[in-house]
Design goal:
The protein has about 500 residues and is an all-alpha fold. The chain has one domain. It has 21 helices and 2 strands. The protein has a two-stranded antiparallel sheet with strand order 1-2. Strand 1 and strand 2 form a beta hairpin. It starts with a helix and ends with a helix. Keywords: Membrane, Transmembrane, Transmembrane helix. It comes from Brachybacterium ginsengisoli. It holds the Pfam family TctA. This is Tripartite tricarboxylate transporter TctA. InterPro entries: DUF112_TM.
């Protein structure tokens, strides 16, 4: 098949010594950052974004993908050992994974997480390879109305799903879109929200906002928190075999399969990333466990850890396919990677597969390599990553702050951008302090220009007739799905409020 031939060519590019090195470096960096509480793959990619412009695009995106997948492995390690998930996608893994660790089964829990992530990621990567031509063909039928509908779907779905408070999600989204309209309008030439400052005529850089919100804002948040006592890692880590015996493997295998099936569709649904499918996978296993004669949930059930891990990585793998073929970011990290594509002058979609096929297929091949590398470095050495927690926090977060400033200075050389970094970083801190989700802000920042341009082009082509926005079958389907998402969100909010009133 053509896809297999292209994939083999991609492996030829990904297996060159330099690209293979970037796969390993990305996996190591991603895992290291994921292990540190409060950090995650989104911060790692944000910090690397201004520092990788010297690399060629293929090497840069191979590095980013390794960081993306590696961050999920690291998050799970801390969720299991310290009950401290690095990101929300690892919360579901804490419920049974941490109980396994406290019961002296930490090595088996880490092995379950590593294999589950490997299974989910591998299955997703295979599907991306074979489904990418279909996704590309679908994206070729998209015009301005379809792209506007897709952006609107991403806006509303992300804002309503990732936050317990829909108004907070919408506020974060509006803030992100508002940042994108600052500057001189490219069509009318009018100044928009510049306050007369020449430094704002070109707008605010997406790189600056990304580093400010995800890195500097996180530093301020961590510094502001009261220190909390943690359980002794050595007491929980235990000894023993870092692998599963036959009985444990047979117990976990069906959960890996079910978690993968649950996670795959969410890779192309703008629902904020892996948070929703991991909780769905955990809930499904819990319901099945209740039917057993000897329920294990609450005692360290291996299936309660296996399913969320497989679901999270399956979602991440499919998200990369949606990003490459449709230009659709379904999470904050994917949105940052879309920004990286634009920094290199690339636009994901059909033209990317036509004009940059070598890079795309080398990147897809690197997904498989990243899964293998992460399995190798996490199965036997997962507990060694926890030693990074011994780094004194003042040194760790001081270094992150330094990298934030150096990265922004390297991209612009302007003191004004450092001031913008500080101001937006404070806003990012306040968002985390008062539980405003970051993902809608990033989605709004990345897709805001696409939505504005598509809306303008659609209305210009129809001489101002708004009916053109819902004139094709694709737009009707997207808006119908949007109504379903909104209805489910409203239903969930009503049920939650009703349960509180009881």
């Amino acid at each position: 098949m053509e896809q297999l031939d292209l994939l083999l060519q991609g492996f030829a590019g990904a297996l060159t010594p330099i690209n293979l090195l970037w796969v390993v470096v990305g996996c190591l960096l991603g895992t290291a950052v994921g292990v540190l509480p409060g950090l995650g793959s989104s911060m790692a990619v944000a910090l690397l974004l201004p520092m990788t412009f010297a690399l060629d695009p293929t090497a840069a995106f191979i590095l980013f993908s390794g960081v993306y997948f590696g961050g999920l492995f690291g998050d799970s390690t801390m969720a299991i050992l310290l009950n401290t998930p690095g990101q929300a996608s690892a919360i579901a893994s804490t419920f049974e994974g941490h109980r396994m660790a406290k019961a002296g089964r930490a090595p088996q829990a880490l092995a379950t997480a590593a294999i589950g992530a490997f299974v989910g990621g591998m299955v997703a990567s295979v599907l991306v390879v074979f489904l990418s031509p279909t996704l590309v063909a679908l994206s070729e039928s998209f015009g301005p109305p379809e792209f506007f509908a897709l952006a609107l779907f991403a806006f509303v779905a992300t804002s309503s799903v990732v936050s317990d408070n829909v108004l907070k999600g919408l506020a974060a989204l509006v803030f992100g879109i508002g940042i994108t309209v600052i500057g001189v309008d490219g069509i009318s030439g009018l100044q928009r929200y510049t306050l007369g400052a020449p430094q704002l005529f070109d707008g605010i850089s997406l790189v600056t906002v990304t580093v400010a919100v995800l890195a500097f804002g996180e530093v301020l948040y961590v510094v502001s928190r009261v220190r909390r006592d943690r359980e002794n890692l050595v007491a929980m880590s235990g000894g023993g075999r870092p692998f599963l015996n036959r009985k444990e493997f047979a117990e976990a295998a069906p959960a890996w399969a079910r978690g993968t099936v649950i996670g795959l569709p969410f890779g192309v649904i703008p629902a904020g990333g892996s948070e929703v499918p991991t909780f769905l996978a955990y809930s499904a296993e819990r319901r099945l466990d209740r039917r057993r004669k000897d329920p294990q949930f609450g005692k360290g059930a291996i299936r309660g850890l296996a399913a969320p891990e497989a679901a999270g990585n399956a979602t991440t793998g499919m998200a990369m396919g949606a990003l490459l073929a449709l230009g659709l970011p379904v999470s904050a990290t994917a949105a940052i990677m879309l920004a990286a594509f634009r920094q290199y002058g690339l636009q994901p979609g059909p033209l990317l597969f036509e004009k940059n096929a070598d890079m795309v297929w080398a990147l897809l091949a690197s997904f498989f390599l990243a899964m293998v590398v992460l399995l190798i470095i996490n199965m036997p050495f997962a507990q060694l990553w926890a030693k990074l927690l011994l780094i004194p926090k003042p040194y760790l977060y001081g270094a992150i702050t330094l990298f934030c400033g150096l990265g922004i200075w390297a991209t612009s050389g302007a003191v004004f951008d450092l001031l913008v970094l500080f101001v937006i970083g404070v806003v990012g801190f306040l968002m985390r302090r008062y539980d405003y989700p970051v993902a809608p802000l990033m989605i709004g920042m990345v897709l805001g220009p696409l939505a504005e341009t598509s809306l303008r082009d659609a209305l210009l082509s129809s001489v101002g007739d708004p009916r053109v926005l819902a004139s094709s079958p694709i737009t009707i389907v997207i808006y119908a799905l949007l109504l379903v998402v909104v209805a489910l969100s409203v239903r969930g909010a009503v049920r939650k409020r009703a349960s509180r009133d009881l």
